[in-house]
Design a protein that fits this description.
heterodimer; A: Rossmann fold; B: alpha/beta; Rossmann fold; 12 strands
């Protein structure tokens, strides 16, 4: 793909949360939300990250943005290691990695004007004079398709789609290199969703942004991504170029996930793999194949205790090589 | 009162529902008409605020009181107009002959009562059953909706179940009395796609086995395509188009339906290309005009009289109805 340094790479990244219990609230177990994820994002690329609720996709996004201190593993931004850096050491990198959140109602401070919200990154990073900052805010609002007058108004005066535009204006204010988009269109209506997706694609072309695009909506991810990673219970089970993963899914979980999408065509006859049960809890998951209990296929005991390697089966197409789940 | 075709279980005609607010009376549902056929599924699709949930609440007579009221129209069910029958009579129909599946299974269930008890509640309300018989029936219902070890689950509380399991419980409650019509309001929106597939399959199977009619409210056109026989597209409180499901996907006539179908990203689409959009956003209830409500977003010039005069819903081919705004239905 690209032989230069990726914009971001993670190496066996782990984010475990202690589960406390007992009288003294000691850690009695670990919730392994992210458990050994290695991936890269190239400059100007969109990496889609899909999976069900509780698979750890949002935690992975937040860990990459260093909103959490990872338990172990590495996060390199253009080759610079971020894991283990102090708040002060992180500050220059904060400008480079920004986030867009799912709920535009909760991620904007209701007591601040839109102008103050979009200006805040400049204030925090001590950039520009007051009048310069005003100018920048006006330019940002125009860029995301909001009127200049929006700066004087409050978030509640805007619809969901417009609020998401405000969140995007704030995220791109410092001209970041990487945007982590955590379900950015899930709360929006269909007709508004496509407006916001178009805006994101346009900004990417214009500013050369890279995206980590997290979503449970596979049709949306397919549309916007260059490559797609499928996450299950804290691990990436399959990673491939977008077209490849839809045309040629290898892991049983990817197949089930893709086949479960309702197709908006009444003449289409679904050939559906219905999975049994729900995503199990990430508290003390099995060391080996995590999909085994839902796969409906017999796994040999050693497959549950030993992790299969993440293998490249064709150029750029990686899969966790559980012989049962991949049929290889 | 007109006799209904025996094939039609529920006929909604010219239903108009309004809310009293500080800003005056706002009409959320404005002259909506459709039929639900026996044993069939009618889908109602539209964006937030289009009035699809208020339509369901009006049929169930569950509008928030005293703000919400049905101003006009009829809801004909079994020869009676549900919009006007006494509250007492409605109570014997609701949960018994017409029941509802709600979107959010966590809020639809009572967190402090055992699941079994919540299923029994409707059963004992509408039937002469002893507590033991009702409990037995509740366990049976849990089994029917695919909950493993139903005897144990019946004694548990909602928080002990996953989201998909909770939605199965909500379905068990809705179906306990063997209703003729089930209104499902976004039953899978809060669920993951693999769980959604399980739940939609379950609703389909139960419908086949029990022969009930389903009115499915959703914003997901994929779900509509897969589960419905007929579709009603709602926009700003009105039905703009109504047709059999294949017809509406193959031959959408109203500009809004076309816009909606064109704007969804598709798995077989070309990645990273600009998506079609519908410009602007749904108008606020307080700004609605009597004429064509889609005019401002249609990108097409409307003559002033089209904005002030309401157009009728015309049947253009058998079973395919469309709001006859000449501009929005052109081409």
């Amino acid at each position: 793909m690209n032989n230069g340094t990726p914009i971001l790479s993670t190496d066996e990244l782990r984010m475990h949360f202690p589960v406390k219990g007992g009288v003294f609230q000691r850690a009695v177990a670990a919730c392994k939300a992210v458990d050994g994820v290695s991936l890269t994002i190239e400059p100007g690329e969109t990496l889609g990250l899909v999976g069900e609720s509780g698979c750890g996709k949002s935690t992975l996004g937040k860990t990459i943005a260093r909103l959490y201190e990872p338990t172990s593993g590495g996060i390199a931004f253009e080759g610079n290691e971020l894991a283990g850096l102090s708040r002060r050491q992180l500050k220059p990198f904060r400008r480079e990695i920004q986030m867009i959140f799912q709920d535009p109602y909760e991620s904007l401070n209701p007591r601040h004007t839109v102008g103050a919200i979009v200006e805040e990154p400049f204030v925090i990073h001590k950039m520009g004079s007051r009048s310069e900052r005003r100018q920048w805010v006006a330019e940002l609002l125009a860029k995301v398709g909001l009127p200049e007058s929006a700066a004087q108004r409050y978030p509640f005066e805007f619809s969901g789609g417009q609020r998401q535009r405000i969140g995007i204006a704030r995220a791109i204010a410092l001209k970041p290199r990487l945007l982590i988009c955590d379900e950015p269109v899930s709360a929006l209506d269909v007709s508004i969703q496509s407006q916001v997706l178009n805006l994101l694609m346009e900004l990417q072309r214009e500013m050369g942004l890279s995206y980590l695009f997290i979503s449970h909506d596979l049709a949306v991810v397919k549309h916007i991504s260059d490559r797609i990673a499928v996450m299950y219970l804290g691990r990436i089970v399959e990673l491939a170029p977008a077209e490849e993963i839809y045309n040629n899914p290898v892991h049983a979980y990817t197949k089930a996930l893709i086949s479960a999408i309702p197709v908006p065509d009444p003449t289409h006859v679904p050939d559906r793999v219905i999975l049994e049960g729900d995503v199990p809890t990430p508290i003390d998951p099995p060391d080996g194949c995590r999909f085994a209990p839902r796969s409906g296929a017999e796994h040999a005991p050693e497959m549950l205790t030993t992790l299969a390697p993440f293998k490249e089966i064709s150029p750029g197409h990686w899969v966790e090589a559980c012989p049962v789940c991949t049929g290889r | 009162m007109a006799e209904l075709d025996s094939d039609i279980l529920l006929r909604v005609s010219d239903l108009t529902t309004a809310f009293d607010t500080d800003a005056g009376q706002l009409t959320a549902v404005d002259g909506v008409s459709f039929d639900v056929r026996r044993g069939r599924t009618l889908g109602i699709v539209g964006e937030s605020g289009c009035g699809k949930s208020v339509t369901a609440m009006s049929i169930m007579r569950l509008l928030p009181q005293p703000m919400g009221k049905i101003l006009d129209g009829e809801v004909l069910f079994d020869g009676r107009n549900l919009a006007t029958i006494p509250a007492e009579d409605m109570r014997s129909i609701r949960g018994n002959r017409i029941s509802m599946i709600f979107q959010e299974p966590m809020t639809a269930l009572n967190p402090v009562h055992r699941i079994g008890k919540q299923i029994c509640e409707g059963l004992t309300q509408h039937n002469e059953l002893s507590p033991d018989e009702a409990w037995q029936k509740a366990v049976e219902m849990l089994e029917k909706v695919g909950i493993p070890s139903p005897e144990i689950r019946a004694t548990e509380y909602p928080h002990q179940l996953s989201g998909g399991m909770r939605q199965r419980v909500v379905i068990a409650i809705a179906l306990a009395c063997g209703p003729e019509l089930v209104i499902a309001d976004e039953p899978t929106t809060a669920l993951d796609v693999t769980i959604q597939a399980q739940i939609l399959q379950l609703i389909n199977n139960l419908q086949r086995d029990l022969g009930m009619s389903v009115m499915l409210i959703t914003h997901d056109l994929g779900v509509i395509a897969e589960t419905c026989d007929e579709v009603c597209v709602m926009y700003a409180g009105r039905v703009v188009e109504r047709a059999p499901v294949r017809e509406i996907f193959a031959n959408p006539r109203h500009a809004y339906t076309q816009g909606l179908l064109n704007s969804i990203p598709r798995l077989d689409g070309i990645p990273k290309t600009e998506l079609n959009i519908i410009d602007g956003m749904v108008p606020a209830l307080s700004e609605l005009k009597p004429g064509c409500r889609f005019a401002s977003r249609s990108g097409r010039e409307h003559e002033p009289e089209l904005l002030v005069e309401r157009q009728p819903l015309n049947e253009i081919t058998p079973g395919h109805w469309v709001e006859a705004c000449p501009v929005c239905t052109r081409g």
